[in-house]
């Protein structure tokens, strides 16, 4: 598709999604109407990520990965809040299940696909271990504070936090996320740029994504237009998700699946375009950008979602269960160990990609059949 065709498609879809949202707001129970809402929702998600990429191209890397991660997280937060507000038997664990699913999909799915595709095409893939390692460490700290500790505290029942503990977790999440963003974009931007390598996969230098080997960045007018369409797409996504959320819950219940599957469906939906972008970068031997996208999305999914959910609990009734169960804790711990072993050398083979993807498959299996 030509650049003009992509622009026309990406400009039209958000507007159509808003029209569908307005037209179906009052009546959306018929299966055909729900199918149209689902199509509009998918289109709006893809359009949102496209416009985020345009804005990202204007500002350069690693700012681009940051914008994409934040855009996807805004979508995720909107979906979670809408599902929580709609009630249901699984409302208290939607936030936990969705955030954990996002972490597992980014840790093992996006990273695994990127390493597999990149290494299959280029024999070895290289990246900056300092940048990837600092991102990984931040995600692990965020997950521990927000998802692991609630399973072991005793001031509130089960996997809940007290109001004070939840407030601390929200503030700590913002502090950690803010500190990483400062490191990635200001203090140590060099560590998050794609690298060049020798025949043994050892990094030999960096490639500044603002350099001349890529297409010229969009004009200021095009970037501002994409920013406006990005906001429009996000509004449409949140609204359409509210209309579709009862159908998602009913579909999962009708299939006899656990409510945790709803969180997996949400995470798969919002991270699908992000996954495509990461794999495309890996195929171009830009695995560092793929890792920026993967770990940045995991980080934003926790560091921005948990504070937003903490604020939302002020008006959304019901409990908020954040603590992972035993199976989830084991899967997360193994995923962390494998991720550390994957990034510590700054280069990877197809084997690492396969290992990550098997862990993702294990997560899906135990989600569908605990």
Please outline what is shown here.
The protein has 370 residues and is an all-alpha fold. Helices cover 73% and strands 3% of the residues. The protein has helices at residues 3-24, 31-59, 63-85, 94-122, 129-148, 163-187, 220-254, 260-283, 287-303, 305-312, 326-343, 350-368; strands at 125-126, 195-197, 203-206, 347-348.
Instruction: List the domain count as a whole number.
Output: 1
Structural class comes to: mainly alpha
The percentage helix is: over 70%
Tally the helices.
12
> Roughly how many Å is the radius of gyration?
20 Å
The fourth-level CATH homologous superfamily is NCX, central ion-binding region
Q: Fill in the CATH topology.
A: A middle domain of Talin 1
What overall geometry do the principal axes of the alpha carbons give? globular
Q: What sequence of helices (H) and strands (E) makes up the elements? A: HHHHEHHEEHHHHHEH
Q: Give the strand order of the largest sheet, numbering strands 1, 2, ... along the chain.
A: 1-4
Bin the strand percentage.
under 5%
What summary fits the major beta sheet? 2 strands, antiparallel
Q: Average pLDDT value? A: 83
Kindly state the number of beta strands. 4
């Amino acid at each position: 598709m030509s650049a003009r065709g992509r622009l026309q498609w990406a400009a039209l879809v958000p507007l159509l999604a808003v029209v569908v949202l307005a037209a179906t707001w009052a009546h959306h129970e018929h299966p055909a109407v729900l199918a149209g809402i689902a199509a509009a929702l998918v289109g709006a998600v893809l359009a949102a990520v496209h416009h985020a990429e345009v804005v990202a191209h204007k500002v350069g890397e690693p700012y681009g990965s940051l914008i994409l991660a934040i855009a996807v997280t805004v979508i995720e937060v909107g979906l979670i809040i809408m599902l929580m507000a709609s009630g249901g038997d699984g409302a208290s664990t939607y936030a936990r299940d969705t955030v954990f699913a996002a972490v597992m999909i980014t840790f093992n799915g996006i990273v695994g696909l990127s390493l597999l595709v990149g290494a299959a095409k280029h024999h070895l893939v290289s990246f900056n271990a300092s940048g990837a390692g600092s991102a990984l460490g931040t995600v692990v700290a965020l997950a521990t504070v927000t998802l692991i500790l609630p399973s072991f505290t005793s001031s509130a029942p089960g996997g809940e936090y007290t109001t004070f503990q939840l407030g601390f977790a929200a503030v700590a999440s913002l502090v950690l996320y803010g500190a990483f963003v400062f490191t990635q974009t200001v203090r140590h931007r060099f560590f998050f740029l794609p690298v060049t390598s020798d025949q043994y996969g050892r990094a030999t230098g960096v490639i500044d994504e603002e350099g001349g080997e890529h297409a010229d960045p969009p004009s200021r007018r095009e970037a501002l237009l994409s920013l406006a369409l990005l906001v429009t797409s996000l509004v449409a996504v949140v609204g359409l998700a509210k209309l579709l959320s009862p159908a998602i819950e009913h579909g999962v219940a009708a299939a006899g699946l656990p409510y945790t599957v709803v969180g997996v469906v949400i995470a798969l939906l919002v991270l699908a375009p992000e996954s495509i972008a990461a794999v495309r970068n890996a195929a171009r031997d830009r695995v560092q950008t793929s890792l920026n996208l993967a770990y940045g999305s995991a980080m934003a999914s926790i560091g921005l979602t948990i504070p937003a959910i903490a604020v939302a609990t002020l008006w959304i009734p019901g409990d908020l269960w954040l603590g992972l169960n035993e199976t989830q804790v084991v899967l997360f711990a193994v995923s962390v160990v494998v991720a550390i072993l994957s990034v510590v050398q700054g280069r990877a083979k197809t084997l690492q990609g396969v290992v990550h993807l098997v862990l993702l498959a294990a997560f899906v299996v135990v989600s569908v059949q605990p």
